[in-house]
Write a structure and sequence with these properties.
Mean pLDDT: 96
Strand content: 15-25%
Bound molecules: zinc ion
Distance between the termini: 41 Å
Number of helices: 13
Shape: globular
Helix content: 25-40%
């Protein structure tokens, strides 16, 4: 008998500190696949899942709906319910199924829903019952809630940051689903969590650091066969919801106590090494001065607080202010989302000079725009193709875009925020970063992989924005104290453990 495996998901990362919201139009512009359209995907999380299922003729995918979008604010309730309801309706219409694979991020929220993934899981459980296996893939920046752990059979986090293994994570989840349905294993999972909220700057899995060590220990358990599966989570710290924390989730073959033991040890180590996650930061002025004084190589300034990949609108301009007021002579490359400036540049045309305000157009609470007199040096549609990462092969859309030049500073002005993987956005507009003395990136991690071939000089900027280098710049309302880094120590702290054992 063929076993029918549901594939569905709502995949995005949200930000509670930005002024924007994610709507259905944002999913439609990025990726909104219905029914058999899902079966055409060969890349990414969907492609990996399908690839693994196809290895065993006993399994058949049942594709419902898969929606992914560039990060942004919370989903509007309308958007969430539209996607949720369609998945549930399609599930009801799908007839008898044997397993469910949900391909999610884990840090999605809606205006009035703290836990989008948990909510969808609950709705799916109500239809398929308590016994059917439901497995969920997650970004390793997921906010793993009690509800998600209790309602799912198995959760899988990415293993790499920068994220390079979405395809493989799909394969891992599908593989455990097939082994479970063949009766080879009975997965049980336990999560252990500590109240640590940090940026992802010191959390690479590809170079030495605390997260590298934690991930390696977790994966050693898995690869040695002591556990079925392991995940380490650094919670996306830019949502503001209750019970947030980082830690580890362990899945064993029906050995909950073993899972709890390893998960707790990893979470405790996470807590013990919390100080190592806080980065060294520079003010924009100090970083520009240091970069401008260096004549040897290119220098990368990463304005981490304005990361579109973390849900920012991409229109904070603190570092652009610093570049423009510097007396040093240098060339520089700077990205900003500024739809009205992009429109004005298109109306003016290449070779024309325009006086225009740039930035602080969408999310206005992080500082003033910059007023510039600039030459329009390039115009474009803003379309590009991702090369690598979780959206490998997918189209990115910056919308109407322009390059504005002030002295040696080239400002890439776009209409829509887009996730930064490599330097696709700059290259789509004919800009080659290696031709510039100062390159500004707006992400906490991928800049390193992207620009290491041309420079070893990197400065992390501490500036206003909804995705700052350290969370102490934000005001949390729903996430209660105490938590690190606001509270450097918490007396008597033990990891919170939940899942296949009773909460403790
Ligand atoms: Zn992530």
């Amino acid at each position: 008998m063929v076993k029918r495996i549901v594939i569905a998901g709502i995949f995005t990362e949200c930000n509670d500190f930005t002024s924007t919201f994610i709507s259905t139009a944002d999913f439609a512009r990025a990726e909104l696949l219905r029914g058999n359209e899902i079966l055409d995907r060969i890349d990414g999380i969907v492609g990996g899942t399908l690839h693994e299922l196809a290895k065993d003729k006993e399994f058949e995918p049942v594709p419902l709906l898969f929606a992914s979008a560039s990060p942004g604010g919370a989903l509007t309730d309308d958007c969430f319910y539209e996607l949720h309801d369609e998945i549930i309706e399609r599930l009801k219409d799908a007839g008898s199924v044997d397993g469910v694979l949900l391909l999610m991020h884990g840090a999605a929220v809606a205006q009035s829903i703290d836990d989008v993934e948990g909510y969808l899981l609950n709705s799916v459980r109500e239809i398929v019952g308590d016994e059917l296996p439901i497995m969920v893939t997650l970004d390793l920046h997921a906010h793993v809630t009690d509800q998600m752990v209790q309602l799912s059979t198995a959760l899988f986090g990415w293993e790499t940051y920068p994220h390079m293994d979405s395809h493989r994570t799909g394969e891992r989840a599908a593989n455990l689903m097939m082994r479970t349905l063949h009766g080879e294993v009975k997965p049980v999972q336990v999560m252990a969590k500590v109240p640590v909220l940090t940026s992802a700057i010191n959390a690479s899995t590809e170079r030495p650091g605390p997260f590298f060590d934690l991930m390696k220990k977790a994966k050693d358990l898995e690869h040695s066969g002591k556990v079925l599966c392991s995940s380490v989570f650094l919670v996306h710290p830019y949502i503001d919801r209750p019970e947030m924390g980082s830690g580890a989730l362990i899945i064993t073959d029906n050995q909950p106590e073993i899972a709890a033991l390893y998960a707790e040890a990893l979470a405790q180590e996470y807590w013990d090494r919390r100080l190592e996650f806080e980065p060294e930061v520079w003010t924009p002025d100090a970083a520009v001065a240091a970069a401008g004084a260096d004549c040897e190589t290119s220098v990368v300034l990463t304005e981490a607080a304005d990361c579109c990949g973390g849900g920012a609108a991409g229109d904070c301009v603190a570092t652009l202010h610093a570049l423009l007021k510097s007396d040093n002579e240098f060339t520089a490359l700077y990205p900003v989302v500024s739809p009205l400036a992009a429109l004005a540049a298109h109306n003016a045309g290449v070779g024309q000079w325009i006086r225009i305000s740039v930035g602080a157009e969408i999310d206005t609470k992080w500082g003033p725009p910059v007023d510039i007199h600039a030459e329009v040096v390039a115009l474009g549609s803003g379309n590009f193709t991702y090369i690598g990462g979780i959206w490998n092969g997918a189209e990115g859309q910056m919308g109407q875009s322009a390059v504005l030049r002030v002295r040696g500073i080239d400002i890439l002005v776009t209409t829509h925020p887009t996730y930064e993987w490599h330097d696709e956005q700059y290259r789509a507009m004919g800009l080659d970063p290696k031709n510039y003395k100062i390159i500004v990136a707006k992400n906490p991690m991928n800049y390193f992989m992207t620009y290491l071939p041309i420079t070893g000089k990197f400065f992390i900027i501490d500036s206003p924005g909804p995705t700052p280098a350290t969370c102490t710049s934000l005001t949390y309302k729903k996430m209660p104290r105490p938590f690190f880094p606001f509270d450097l120590d918490i007396e008597g702290l033990r990891p919170k453990i939940f899942g296949a054992i009773n909460n403790r």
